[in-house]
Sequence to fold (189 residues):
Amino acid sequence: MKKINIVCLGGSMEQKSSTLAVLKYASASLKELGAEVYVSDIRTLELPVFSYKALRSLRNRKFTELVKKIKNADGFIFASPEYHGSVSSAFKNVIDYLEVLSKETPPYLSLKPVGCIALGGAENAGYATLSAMISIVHNLRGVAAPNSLAIGYGSSLFDNKGNLKSEVIIKRVNRLSDELFLLAKRLKD
Fold:
């Protein structure tokens, strides 16, 4: 069986990002399933605010590496914090730079599965962001994984060592990882 390649993209601009920690947990779950996983922390990409002029003149080694990994990926997990009812501007900025994939054949993330994770600070937070992320996936021509999830109380999900402590969230993230791996395997050419 050919290796399944998954790109995990997300995080926040915070040094200790809860969103990035959940994304890394999902990536570890995917590795256990046998996937080759590449994690891209949006904070480390250091992209300027998107414009077509900036896109044309962009010389960013980390972003170039990310694009190369995206082109070879069989699936993705996107993770964003919820800021004022939507994805963070930093996450959206990286997504806007994926315009570089518009001329590919097929373009963007065509027919590749994408699991979405939205992390919010309040009990019922994340649902508006999850909806926005699914819309973004559809606009990039990807297939949104049905078990994509919104998580509330993002910063209280971890113990003092930084480990995910909520059994419910662990179960949901593992379910998303399992589903994404299976979808990637089935949709791979």
Notes: The longest strand covers residues 75-83. The CA atoms of residues 8 and 28 lie 11 Å apart. The chain has a mean pLDDT of 94.
